[in-house]
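Following up on my earlier thread - several people asked me to post the actual chain instead of describing it. Fair enough. Here it is, all 142 residues.
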Amino acid sequence: RVGAPTGNTGAWSVRGAFGRGDLSSWIVAGNYVRPAEAKHALDLGASFALQSFSDATPAALISVAEKRRAAGTIHAFDTWRLHRRAVITYGTRYAYHDYLDRPTLMSPSVSASVSPFEKTWVRVAVTQQMLAPVIAVNDGFQ
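Reply from S.P.:
Thanks for posting it. Predicted structure:
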């Protein structure tokens, strides 16, 4: 993981990992975040991952139809502090999974928060959260 502040405006980070074997994989992800205390806060990021299944292990190929899978996301969320007791946040997350029939998933969201009393917040949000389905592996048992 590598990251650094960007002056007084926020911080960026990049991280990654990889694994080798019958199921090799790697992932890389990056973020830029401007602090929530600012009048205008930002959260931007992206990630990409790849899995590859070895021909040397037939059990791995029996459990999934394809020899490799790729997935990635991009997100952007914007927060505006209109007043010390009023905040609006909006944004979306776009995900791509190449192994799905419909590989793209969009998850938009918008919210408004107000603080009628000290240490009390009321939040109203409209969101749509799209998730990739869990793919069951047939292990031969009934």
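The beta strands are 2-5, 11-19, 23-33, 40-53, 68-83, 86-97, 104-117, 120-127. That should answer part of your original question.
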